[in-house]
Amino acid sequence: MNRRDFSLRLAGAVGALSLGGLPPAAAHARGRPQRPSVMVDGDRINRHLMELAEFGRNPYGGVSRVAYTEFDRQGREYVMGLMREAGLEVSIDVAGNIIGKRAGSSPALSPILFGSHIDSVPDGGNYDGDVGVLSSIEVARTLRARGHVTRHPIEVIVFQNEEGGTIGSRAFVGHLPDKDLDLVARSGKTLRDGIRFLGGDPSRLSTLHWKTGDYTAYVELHIEQGGTLDAERLDIGVVEGIVGIGWWDVTIDGFGNHAGTTPMDKRRDALLAAAKYVQMVNRVVTAEPGRQVGTVGKIQAFPGAPNVIPGQVQTTLEIRDLDKSKIVRLAQQVMDEARKIGAENGTTFTFRETYLSEPAMMNPAVQKVIEASATSLGLSTKYLPSGAGHDAQYMAQIMPTGMIFCPSVGGISHSPKEFTKPQDVVNGANVLLQTVLALDAK
Amino acid sequence: MNRRDFSLRLAGAVGALSLGGLPPAAAHARGRPQRPSVMVDGDRINRHLMELAEFGRNPYGGVSRVAYTEFDRQGREYVMGLMREAGLEVSIDVAGNIIGKRAGSSPALSPILFGSHIDSVPDGGNYDGDVGVLSSIEVARTLRARGHVTRHPIEVIVFQNEEGGTIGSRAFVGHLPDKDLDLVARSGKTLRDGIRFLGGDPSRLSTLHWKTGDYTAYVELHIEQGGTLDAERLDIGVVEGIVGIGWWDVTIDGFGNHAGTTPMDKRRDALLAAAKYVQMVNRVVTAEPGRQVGTVGKIQAFPGAPNVIPGQVQTTLEIRDLDKSKIVRLAQQVMDEARKIGAENGTTFTFRETYLSEPAMMNPAVQKVIEASATSLGLSTKYLPSGAGHDAQYMAQIMPTGMIFCPSVGGISHSPKEFTKPQDVVNGANVLLQTVLALDAK
Q: Which residue, A261, A434, B194, B205, could crosslink A373 as a Cys pair with Cβ 3.0–4.6 Å?
């Protein structure tokens, strides 16, 4: 099924979200939305969040549950237990992703996939990834508790090593080349050893290559890492897409010289040029309307002594936007302006592109389903881009994909301070439940 | 003898520089300067420069004759051989400095000291230090060859480890505290072990504490590391003083955050503040007339990833000037302006002074002697500060001190590209010779 077909088919489902729980037939009643009666057990999700937080817990708060570590393995064991309690048939694919399956009533239909990840960055928090995984399991458990059998098979997925480069989701769609398996992950293990450690089989990765048509849709609930929902006191974010990312290594060459003996007007100071560059990037990126962001995150001056005029500076450029052509255009503008800075103080700029990812647009029909689901629950919504990468960006390559954001206080993530209010977690889970049901209702 | 006395006594000597070689009485002939007849052997100095260059020679040019290494030891052996050939009585003081002595005709007079250093930075050149040492030995050799006995004893000194913090000259005037002996030098040896390696006795350093009155004067010939003489095609620099140096460690605290999800207007980017800081330092330092210099030579952003907004930047500030109050005032201005930058983008600046050295003024009478010596040789001169530190700055604490600069092409130093034309070396050596004779003539 290509995306266009899916969009057309979904169009009928939108507005039919007041499925009102069981029996499923009720989901098809048209007219003014009424509050759905099937809801997740909010206390249970939040309890599970606290329980999962034990694996890799740090004394100062948060967790370090880095992929391929013992804490990661323990967390996965815990989650697999929850999946079994939810009546899911649990397996680990060759890439090490955990999948919990439940059959649907129409064997010809391809599954609806939903989930997220439970690995964390070092010194991370308890919501990034976890909220999506535990809510997905809760959705499956709720459906089972209510005796509701979906038409499509459902599959809850826990992608492995999202934080270390969306490894599990890349493998899922066949985008993890064999040569990458020798890369060393944060755990110290290579990806190959890590996959083996999780129960996967790296030698059979090529057999895992899901394609368009294999799945009906993918939905991921995740905390919003940008703080927009929290700042604007909104309940649910409907993700329009995951931004593309461009990275450049930037080298600025001047002339290193003695800081004591070289008069100010005789200098070709690479750091002075770098200072102008950093400000210029900020100016170029903010000069036009839009939600593009541009960042200089890394800088080093050489030789790097207080008493030597820097002869070289190595720095970076990152630009993100939902529109790849905008990324490329802004980068070009930065390069042009950099050339002028160089000409002014006798330095030269060299840009080397190191990464340029495609923006991943979320499926418009799934976006509408998510919005309608939230509205049916009385929740406020906002359409927004995801500035961070997610497993969903790879799912979007082979199936209609949607992401649901719930607020993160202050937009803080990758930090022990990461926090999503219990009610916001529950809201997100209920929107996920209604979205799955609406997608299933077709 | 205090400096004032010395200045008065020297006043009579200025203008008497056409001493015209031997017999010494001729030096006292007054009237229009005539070209001195006693001159160094220029070919010999330049040949010695090339010979010394062999010890620590790098395949790509220049030398790495780092203090306390085997190459340093070999270079010192070579130089001690030259000293003996020049008729000097060679010894190594407890600090590891090499001293070559020759008695004067008036035993009551305190010695005239001249010299420099032969250690280099890693990947250094063949002129910084070497020119002064080899010219000093040549001056002694010339006097001996001409049978000229000075009134004052003369002492040629090779200070050890100038490049690693003017260690030998500091020890010479009692400014090397015992605790510093455990510092590790570039060679990997501690200063204590390095001094022992050179034949000194670190346990007896306290016995080496020359005081005001012990010496008549110190004169050092050195290449000019600033390029002013070369740019203005001048022969000789008369050094007015060695600048004071202030160093500050600067920490800028912002808020580290996800570069993808944090909108541009919600950032407290420490590197953006640092960029403004670097430009501001340049602006403040160049805003007023004078030869002060200000440099930001070191910078690092934390966490330092292309996709994270820097939460902290660690950088530096260095200001140099002949006037210490100007250094302090400019630093205060930088701190005030930094506070404004911080207030604008939600970051805070912290400055920590790590070093503040006193400017070392050269003795005005010695300066005049140097100028007159150069003029008598038909050489053009310019009064200028030394932006770099030299052993002379410690000598200036206990005796009237002067420095003679000869041009370095392009002002390049601490580099294999360091080069002083043979004739400029010879000019410097002849000015040193005439200066020593004039000082001796009182």
A: A434
